[in-house]
Amino acid sequence: MTEQKIQNEIILAINQRGHRLFRANAGKVITKDNRVIKLLPKGFPDTFGYRKSDGKFIAIEVKTESGRLRSEQKKFKAFAETQNILYGIATNVEEAIQIIESE
């Protein structure tokens, strides 16, 4: 299964549980007329949102079973683990639910 398909399944399942999760676009894009549009910083997780019970910030990096974190993603992970947020790496819906609802 592709990372995109896993991500779509996670977003749908989490939102059905009442939390809010959105797709994040990181990096930059260049338009047809050569304008640069900066998006979220490199390394920002694939999805972000908030938990329904308390509004706590959620950041989930989505990977396939064989996927590995890139350097920028490792830096964000190290930062996130020092913050009071729900952060984790998920390869399927069950792992994403665990990240959000285990606390």
UniProtKB/TrEMBL annotation:
The keyword Membrane does not apply. Its cofactor is Mg(2+). Keywords: Hydrolase, Nuclease. It holds the Pfam family VRR_NUC. Gene3D superfamilies: 3.40.1350.10. It comes from the Bacteria. GO terms for molecular function: hydrolase activity, acting on ester bonds; nuclease activity; nucleic acid binding. Residues 1-94 form the VRR-NUC domain. This is VRR-NUC domain-containing protein. It comes from Staphylococcus pettenkoferi. The lineage of its organism: Bacteria, Bacillati, Bacillota, Bacilli, Bacillales.
